[in-house]
Amino acid sequence: MDETLLERLQAVEPLMWINPELGPTTAAHVPVRPDQVTEAEANWRALAPLLQQCFEELEDSGGMIASDLIEVADLAMAMGQGAGRFFVKGDHALPVAGSVKARGGVYEVLLHGLSLARQLGLIAPDAPPAALAAGKVRDRFGSCTVAVGSTGNLGLSVGIAARALGFRAVVHMSADAKPWKVERLRRHGVEVVQHQADYGTAVASARLQAEADPSIYFVDDERSELLFFGYSAAAAELSGQLVERNIPVDAENPLFLYLPCGIGGAPGGVAYGLKQVFGDHAHCFFVEPAQSPCALVQLASGLKRAVNVYDVGLTNKTEADGMAVAEVSQFVVQVMQPLLSGVYTVADDDLFRWLALAQDHAGLQLEPSAAACLGGPQMLLSTAEGQGYLAQHGLVAKTDQATHVMWATGGSLVPDEEYQSFLQKGRALRD
Ligand SMILES: Cc1ncc(COP(=O)(O)O)c(C=O)c1O
Q1: How far is the CA of 409 from the centre of ligand 1 (A)?
Q2: Residues with Cβ within 8 Å of residue 363, at least 6 apart in sequence
Q3: Can you tell me the distance from the alpha carbon of 223 to that of 220, in angstroms, rounded to the nearest whole number?
Q4: Best of 96, 100, 366 to mutate for ligand 1, by most ligand atoms within 8 A of CB?
Q5: Backbone angles phi, psi at 150, to 5 degrees
């Protein structure tokens, strides 16, 4: 890695890094295929009647797990974000799990349930997914386990979905996991194993246990293509919402996206989907805590060997629990290396400031990880690196026609007391 970048990372200052490996979307040779995105969209449609039966809150949406696209002109002004149109993609309020993780975790658990029920002969090979709601399927699933390692939100999404189908569910949590997430899981009948270690260690231990026991299905956040493609279907949803608002995305009207990144599955899956829908007109940036920039350190070091944030002298300590990940998914960086525009980092204090601004100027309840997305436009429009990116892609004169989408990845399920303390902290830092 470049010495200057290393020094800036070690100084823990927020920075923007532009990915030199970004190329034309169609030229990207990656280990997945575009038709896996359209397949995931079709799978979600097929799962909708089952989702409607499993979750009361999905009755009105026809079983779709989808979020609003919210225009946030006031918030953008309060953050000094300048020209263009600014939106929050409201995954903080996604049904079922209150975070972007509902798009991946629920998808993988339901598809696993479907294939297991077929394999065990519990439903006919051509039965629709809604057949999983039958009592005899649920009873049989009670002797099968779904396990996952999580900093919190993936555990909520996998645990809730697994219990809804009648599975035994075990969530392995890292030391960073917030107590309210543990409590909520236990209320849903999920068994929680708390590790006094970081996220990677919790996942490794859960994977080992699952390998030794064939009754355990392990949702592997570091390697799962199912999770990745569950997230990717969000791109078509966003595309429909932009069309509804008559917002073009093309060479004259660029789309900038800011996606909070932990292990990389959620932002990677969404970004991969977006690149299939919008091609080179979608400019995807990941955002990571300044102490946990795992995707940045890996991409900036090349992909020959795994590099984690401890290797460059960082602590991986951050209030953004969903992003407290030391080493990025190697699968995700393989896919994203030719497709990602860049990564910017954030200081924890800014997360709280922006969380308070999101409440006070847009009425949005975000958790600290999600608030990270709000700093993207400023990083792009006001840093030398961001300006360089715009110049390199011929976009300097097009910022007035640009659309910025900040992907708010979680927050609506944060208990009131906890949220109020975040808010107070943010307001105190801001004033
Ligand atoms: C709120 C929130 N944002 C972003 C992320 C990052 O997702 P991923 O770990 O798939 O990169 C997480 C992960 O748990 C999260 O909980």
Answers
A1: 7
A2: none
A3: 5
A4: 100
A5: -160, 150
CA distances from 241 to 66, 71, 227, 405 (A): 11, 11, 23, 12
DSSP-derived letter for residue 318 is -
pLDDT-derived band at 53 (thresholds 50, 70, 90) equals: very high
Ligand 1 centroid to residue 205 C-alpha, Å: 20
Complete edge-to-edge strand list for the sheet that includes strand 403-407: 16-18, 342-346, 282-289, 255-260, 403-407, 85-89, 69-71
Structure tokens at 117: 């029920």
pLDDT greater than 80 at residue 404 = yes
Q: What tens digit of pLDDT does each residue of 172-203 get?
A: 998 877 888 899 899 999 999 999 888 888 88
- Tokens 């010495």: give the residue: 3
Ligand 1 centroid distance, CA of 126 (Å): 35
- Report the SS3 class of residue 121: coil
Atom number of ligand 1 nearest to Cα 227: 10
How far CA 204 is from CA of 101, 216, 267, in Å, comes to 20, 15, 22
User: Rg of the Cα trace of the chain?
Assistant: 21
CB within 8 Å of 328: residues ≥ 6 apart? 261, 263, 264, 294, 295, 298
Q: Which domains does the chain have, with CATH numbers?
A: 3-98+228-430 (3.40.50.1100), 101-226 (3.40.50.1100)
- Residue identifier of the C-alpha nearest atom 12 of ligand 1: 322
Nearest Cα to Cα of residue 86 among 413, 364, 424: 364
With a CB cutoff of 8 Å and minimum separation 6, the contacts of 288 are: 260, 261, 294, 295, 296, 323, 343, 344, 345, 346, 372
Pocket test for ligand 1, best of 99, 178, 221, 323 (most atoms within 8 A of CB): 323
